């Protein structure tokens, strides 16, 4: 039994030395959100996390990008899109908006092989007439966690060991075995869907729940999905190993060369729409990013298409310095109360100011195509002053009667969601961590299930037996057959003298 002194030394604190009594949930209004700004533990944790790498991105370091355009259909399914959103880029059939897209792996470094098992980032910057809109997501449509307080822990567990500098499957599954909400994502990740064949043949998703707002200020909940016009293609672990033996830049090469040949990749943007309420009839919370919305109830509705037709002229200036943020929305688009989305909205832009600089939005790849006029001044690497035509350069504040900037006129009604509740640290009520993971297991084709089990067994075999046991129980809660197949695989894999207390799994990627 630990002494009082040792117990105190092993108690989690923040950098001020304050004991952290709840490291699982951000403070929010009720357990569904929204979050509140005075989340000191979260802000300290996430801002330090945002600054852990110089200058490489902490996550999404390895990437490729291309320019293109988005063409609106003017409708959502069979309905006029104005019924749901007043965002100008969607309103007219055939209207084209320039875009820049950055694809990436998530956990691994800037020169890592593109064959590694990892979610893939799918970030799109729309240069609209109302300014930029960034739709930032992944190829897989769900995520590991639902509370932003856990994001640094998730990435730390998946990054290399801070002592050995080796990625360690035991650290990963130690975290996952204590985080049951991750089972849906783990089922995706360790199946062939965890290794897309290339960037052109993979899906994209906004992952989080957003809102659309119409002229009357009325809102609906939205999920975004990019569906490739090219067939979807993934790799087994064996196929990925064979690819990596000859080419570890294959996805970047494939994207670049296909565009050079004039074979421009294309995706259709679809949305799912849900009324803006808690939907008690569902067995999950629609704001939960670890869940999919069932398509039979909330079908995919096409709203436009995206074509990538131009390669970057300079990789660093365009792909590496491209900076995205989930808070970059134009009029007619809005945030939901999704707590992970709200945490990401702070973290992403904070990271860009640290990584690229306070004036990262003045770089050509990040600057909107419309004129910018602000009262922001100075800072590292200032390229120009955001002055409006005729603006008094002596006035960098508002309000002013000396020729400064004025507020824009309001053209439509504000969306004014009602928020009421106690400010708490709580998990959402309808966690339902296992059902969709079990359903995903059954949806997989036979060869995908076999690959999933083989990959999990290979990585779990090097973990301590208590971690193996916890993972088997979680798999069984997803689906009995799922858990039994992993259990049998581990029994067959286990050698005499298997580690009872210590062990390190091979690199799971």
Task: Walk me through what this model shows.
There is one protein chain. The protein has helices spanning 4-9, 40-50, 151-158, 169-177, 183-189, 237-246, 250-260, 315-320, 339-355, 435-443, 446-460, 465-478, 480-493; strands at residues 28-29, 63-72, 75-76, 79-80, 96-105, 120-128, 131-138, 204-205, 210-213, 219-228, 266-275, 301-310, 333-335, 423-424. The chain is α+β, with helices and mostly antiparallel strands and 509 residues long.
Q: Give a count of the beta strands, DSSP E runs of length 2 or more.
A: 14
Order of helices and strands: HEHEEEEEEHHHEEEHHEEHEHEHHHH
Strand pairing plus helix content: what structural class?
alpha+beta
Residues in helix, %:
25-40%
Described by strand count, sense and barrel closure, the largest sheet is: 10 strands, antiparallel
Radius of gyration: 24 Å
Mean pLDDT: 91
Strand content of the residues, in percent?
15-25%
Poorly predicted ranges: 497-504
Helix segment tally: 13
Distance between the termini: 37 Å
Q: Please tell me what the overall shape is.
A: globular
In terms of topology, how is this protein built?
Elements: H1 4-9, E1 28-29, H2 40-50, E2 63-72, E3 75-76, E4 79-80, E5 96-105, E6 120-128, E7 131-138, H3 151-158, H4 169-177, H5 183-189, E8 204-205, E9 210-213, E10 219-228, H6 237-246, H7 250-260, E11 266-275, E12 301-310, H8 315-320, E13 333-335, H9 339-355, E14 423-424, H10 435-443, H11 446-460, H12 465-478, H13 480-493
């Amino acid at each position: 039994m630990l002494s009082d002194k040792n117990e105190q030394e092993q108690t989690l604190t923040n950098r001020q030395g304050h004991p952290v009594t709840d490291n699982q949930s951000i403070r929010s209004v009720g357990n569904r959100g929204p979050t509140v700004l005075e989340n000191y533990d979260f802000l300290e944790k996430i801002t330090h996390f945002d600054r852990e790498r110089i200058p490489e991105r902490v996550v999404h370091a390895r990437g490729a990008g291309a320019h293109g355009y988005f063409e609106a259909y003017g409708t959502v399914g069979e309905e006029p899109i104005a019924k749901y959103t007043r965002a100008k880029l969607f309103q007219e059939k055939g209207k084209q908006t320039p875009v820049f897209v950055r694809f990436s792996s998530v956990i691994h470094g800037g020169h890592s092989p593109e064959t590694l098992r990892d979610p893939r980032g799918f970030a799109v910057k729309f240069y609209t007439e109302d300014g930029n809109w960034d739709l930032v997501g992944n190829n897989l449509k769900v995520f590991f966690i639902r509370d932003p307080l856990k994001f640094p822990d998730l990435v730390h567990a998946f990054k290399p060991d801070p002592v050995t500098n080796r990625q360690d499957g035991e650290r990963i599954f130690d975290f996952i075995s204590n985080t049951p909400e991750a089972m849906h994502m783990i089922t995706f990740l360790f199946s062939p869907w965890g290794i897309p064949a290339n960037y052109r043949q993979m899906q994209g998703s906004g992952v989080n729940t957003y809102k659309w707002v119409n002229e009357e200020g009325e809102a609906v909940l939205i999920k975004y999905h990019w569906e490739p016009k090219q067939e979807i293609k993934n790799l087994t672990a064996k196929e990925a190993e064979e690819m990596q033996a000859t080419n570890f830049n294959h996805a970047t090469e494939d994207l670049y060369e296909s565009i050079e040949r004039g074979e421009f990749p294309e995706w259709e943007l679809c949305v799912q729409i849900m009324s803006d309420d808690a939907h008690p009839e569902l067995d999950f919370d629609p704001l939960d990013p670890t869940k999919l919305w069932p398509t039979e109830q909330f079908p995919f509705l096409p709203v436009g298409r995206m074509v990538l037709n131009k390669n970057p002229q300079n990789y660093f200036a365009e792909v590496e310095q491209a900076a995205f943020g989930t808070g970059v929305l134009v009029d007619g688009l809005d945030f939901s109360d999704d707590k992970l989305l709200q945490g990401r909205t702070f973290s992403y832009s904070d990271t860009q100011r640290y990584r690229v600089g306070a004036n990262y939005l003045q770089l050509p790849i990040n600057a909107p195509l419309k004129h910018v006029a602000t009262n922001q001044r100075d800072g590292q690497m200032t390229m120009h002053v955001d002055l409006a035509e005729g603006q008094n350069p002596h006035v960098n504040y508002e309000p002013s009667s000396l020729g400064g900037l004025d507020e824009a006129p309001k053209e439509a009604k504000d969306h004014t969601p009602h928020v009421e509740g106690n400010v708490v640290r709580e998990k959402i009520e309808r966690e339902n961590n296992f059902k969709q993971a079990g359903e995903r297991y059954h949806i997989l084709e036979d060869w995908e299930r076999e690959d999933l089990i083989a990959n999990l067994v290979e990585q779990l075999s090097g973990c301590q037996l208590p971690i193996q046991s916890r993972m088997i129980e979680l798999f069984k809660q997803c689906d009995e057959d799922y858990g039994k197949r992993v259990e049998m695989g581990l029994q067959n894999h286990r050698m005499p003298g298997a580690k009872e207390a210590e062990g390190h799994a091979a690199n799971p990627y």
